Amino acid sequence: MSDERIWLTREELGERWRIRPKTLANWAALSPQKGPRFVKVGGQVRYQLADVLAYENSLMSEAA
What we know:
Order of helices and strands: EHHEEH
Number of helices: 3
Oligomer: single chain
């Protein structure tokens, strides 16, 4: 299955990054530019794995 077909819940992404789902909720509410893109479906937030991977890659620093 390709990355664009895989969707993560806030809980799953929080587990992946070892942060609380509430932190992700706060980012979405208070700092929209922070964190990967997400969609709300039926009141539930979902993150597309491809967007999560792109966001993670954008945070990588170049070796000095």
